[in-house]
Amino acid sequence: MIEFRSVSYAFDDISVLEDVSLAIADGEFVVLAGANGSGKTTLLRHCNGLLEPDSGTVLVNETPVSDDLIAARSSVGMVFQHPRDQFVAATIGADVAFGPENLGLAREEIDRRVGESLEAVNMAGRDDERIDQLSGGEQSRVAIAGALAMEPTHLVLDEPFTGLDDPARRSVLSRLESLAADGTGILLATHDLRDVVGIADRIVAMRDGRVVVDDSPEDALEDLARLEVRVPDT
Ligand SMILES: Nc1ncnc2c1ncn2[C@@H]1O[C@H](COP(=O)(O)OP(=O)(O)OP(=O)(O)O)[C@@H](O)[C@H]1O
């Protein structure tokens, strides 16, 4: 479980998170919605200690993140908004393999994870291609594959669908859905709720650094329209 307990955070005295309390249980698929600047990225960056709360606590599997950064970082897979900053190798296969290699896994297991993760993002068989020659959407898919290959107990994704075409988006979503069904807790930030409403267990919406909606997708939709968060046409 990832748990935010009364988390507040300010950049240079400007409050960005105010008293945020939120829990993502194992196997739960939670969508974090909110307009640009509402605080989603700032909140997510607390999940693995990239930012620390000014007050309040963030816990991963009941341990405060600040007490055990290594445990938090190995339990929570993060996919950031700008994947270019996340790559460590020149080719797709080497980059996705990097995390599992650092876990000291056997070659066979590494190869299995890389293969499955690339398949989940519709990039199977492209291991040898150079990352710097990929489009932005393809780079996003490699970043997602890198997080999947770690098989973390939680996945936190910040606007992962930017630049992805429909088949890639559907493939990633279906993979996330099956991971959640198998017990992985998922926290997915997006300002675009197409596709995710039918899959999410809960939608949490932020405005001005506060959680203003935390409900089932059906019940959340009405409030979301009021908050100017994009909602599906249906
Ligand atoms: N490093 C920083 N220094 C100062 N202010 C920042 C910094 N990062 C974010 N902010 C401010 O914090 C607020 C929340 O930003 P954040 O990126 O968390 O929002 P968001 O909901 O993720 O928006 P977006 O969808 O545009 O990414 C914004 O007003 C932003 O300008």
UniProtKB/TrEMBL annotation:
Pfam family, one: ABC_tran
The entry's keywords: ATP-binding, Cell membrane, Membrane, Nucleotide-binding, Translocase, Transport
Domain ABC transporter: 2-233
Name of this protein: ABC transporter
Subcellular localization(s) per the UniProt record: Cell membrane
Family the entry assigns: Belongs to the ABC transporter superfamily.
Membrane-topology descriptor: Peripheral membrane protein
Keyword Membrane annotated: yes
Top-level division of the source organism's lineage: Archaea
InterPro entries registered for this protein in UniProt: AAA+_ATPase (IPR003593), ABC_transporter-like_ATP-bd (IPR003439), ABC_transporter-like_CS (IPR017871), ABC_transpr_CbiO/EcfA_su (IPR015856), ECF_ABC_transporter_ATP-bd (IPR050095), P-loop_NTPase (IPR027417)
Molecular function in Gene Ontology: ATP binding; ATP hydrolysis activity; ATPase-coupled transmembrane transporter activity
GO cellular component: ATP-binding cassette (ABC) transporter complex
Organism placement in taxonomy: Archaea, Methanobacteriati, Methanobacteriota, Stenosarchaea group, Halobacteria
PANTHER family named among the record's database cross-references: ENERGY-COUPLING FACTOR TRANSPORTER ATP-BINDING PROTEIN ECFA1, HEAVY METAL TRANSPORTER
Keyword Translocase part of the UniProt annotation: yes
Role: Probably part of an ABC transporter complex. Responsible for energy coupling to the transport system.
